[in-house]
Amino acid sequence: MPGAKRVYLKTFGCQMNVYDSERMADQLSAVGYSETDDIESADLVILNTCHIREKAAEKVYSDLGRIRQVKSERALAGRDTVVAVTGCVAQAEGNEIVRRAPVVDLVIGPQSYHRLPDLIAKAKAEGRQQVDIEFPEEDKFAHLAERRVTPNASAAAFLTVQEGCDKFCTFCVVPYTRGMESSRSIADLEKETRRLVARGVREITLLGQNVNGYHGTGPDGAPWSLARLIRHLAGIEGVERLRYMTSHPRDMSDDLIAAHRDEAKLMPYLHLPFQAGSDRILAAMNRKHTAADYLALIGRIRAARPDIALSTDIIVGFPGETEAEFQQTLDLVARIGFAQAYSFKYSPRPGTPAATMGDQVPDGVRADRLQRLQRLLERQQTSFNASCVGRVFPVLFERPGRRVGQLIGRSPYLQSVHAEADPALLGRIMPVEISGAGPNSLSGVIRAA
Ligand code: 5AD
Ligand code: SF4
Q1: Are 388 and 415 in contact (CB under 8 A)?
Q2: I need a labelling partner for 222 at 20 to 30 A (CA). Which of 47, 78, 112, 355 fits?
Q3: Tell me, what's the pLDDT at 2?
Q4: Residues 234, 272: contact at Cβ < 8 Å?
């Protein structure tokens, strides 16, 4: 009988990390750990980290300072604490972490976290730090504990279908932290989907750093596209909604666009980063598309699915970006109209080609451009939300609201929707007439089905 041990797990960064944290929790649950929000009671502390921008990476070291105190206080009380750094900072800075932060016992890259229980045992037995940042031959998914069937879990879940990237955008660490592209097999994903449905999941977001480059092996032994995977999973009873992210414009194939037209379970919402509006900057980023290519692609997607809402990622202040080139980013945003977007100041990342390009844009200029861009994006988001008032949306209720008697759900467009609702409706999709819209959420009233 495994002892009652506790793990405190903190997740930084993207949805893929959220998914990985959940799989680690499953893995640890199988060897007797339960999760806690109270770091002082934790026998195992895991920071699942992100390396995408400098700020995210630096946060890890400040957290480790605080963890060092907790660990020594616990030691005085005779209790051991194992400290693990996992994820993308672990992958990128493995040995440096061990040097900079002796409090850390384990450094484990995103491809090796299935070895977590073994590495904990090894660190304890050998009494020294363990670093595992190989890209192992074995497939971690084949070694992980099965997804737990937990009661009261959320009705929406992530499912990693593809990892890594070999597009090598010049600003991006992902090809170095997550490695080359690899796709999980259709059979493996079908099995995990059935597990998720069994625990009450109704909406699944398929994840990959380059998800529309998915090419997993199908039951026929041939590689299947993302569109085919979507159609296959949509055929599973209990799966009611599908989404995917993040996509690259170069991999928006005709069959994927057609799936947006034909597959009712695929939500009319697409996150499609374009990063910059200037062709010169796009070329320097190695994006391999122009602004006109992106516009034409959006035109084809909208022709297939006129009510689709769009989201994107944008970087301002890439090395060499002039004011006129930044204006082209604003122009592209204005021409397309986004329901939602993420925008970032360019952050030089060690080891990436852009970090050593001349002509880095001063931080003050980057900050100013970001503010101007975000003002435009906020206006677009607010007006998109306002345009939803009076419409009836199918809303998947996911969690209780702050007020008693209220639930929060998601619209097809990924907006949070607040409504007065019976708690028994958690996990169900109900028609909601939208009556109010703010910059970040909607409210509405349930209509008779
Ligand atoms: N600096 C700023 N933003 C970045 N992103 C990726 N790398 C960097 C960087 N070095 C942004 C991109 C990407 C999103 C996940 O993060 O917009 O699409
Ligand atoms: Fe951050 Fe990229 Fe790693 Fe996600 S994959 S955690 S965004 S560095």
Answers
A1: yes
A2: 112
A3: 46
A4: no
Residue nearest to atom 5 of ligand 2 (CA): 174
Domain interval for residue 95:
5-132
Is 286 among the domain residues?
no
Please tell me the distance between residue 314's alpha carbon and the centre of ligand 1 in angstroms: 8
Q: Is the CB of 179 under 6 A from ligand 2?
A: no
Q: Which of 313, 329, 343 to mutate to test the pocket of ligand 1 (most atoms within 8 A of CB)?
A: 313
Q: pLDDT tens-digit profile of 29-87?
A: 999 999 999 999 999 999 999 999 998 888 999 999 999 999 999 999 999 999 999 99
Q: How far is CA 399 from the centre of its chain?
A: 19
Best CA proximity match to 242, nearest among 254, 234, 232, 250: 234
> Do 156 and 112 sit in the same domain of this protein?
no
Task: Kindly state the percentage of the chain with pLDDT values over 90.
Answer: 90
CA nearest 333: which of 277, 269, 381, 283?
277
Q: What is the pTM of this model?
A: 0.94
Distance 211 CA to ligand 1 centre (A): 16
Ligand nearest to the CA of 48: 2
Please write the tens of the pLDDT for every residue from 174-206: 999 998 899 999 999 999 999 999 999 999 999
Residue 122 to residue 118: CA distance in whole angstroms: 6
Which of 18, 22, 50, 60 is the pocket-test mutation for ligand 2 (most atoms within 8 Å of CB)?
50
Query: How far, in Å, from the CA of 207 to the mean position of ligand 2?
Result: 12
Query: ∠ CA(320), CA(339), CA(377), 5° rounding?
Result: 40
Residue 396 Cα to ligand 1 midpoint, Å, equals: 30
User: What gap in Å lies between CA 437 and CA 387, rounded to an integer?
Assistant: 9
Q: Is the CB of 14 under 6 A from ligand 2?
A: yes
Q: What does DSSP assign to residue 212? A: G
CATH number at residue 42: 3.40.50.12160
Residues 6+ apart with CB under 8 A from 4: 32, 34
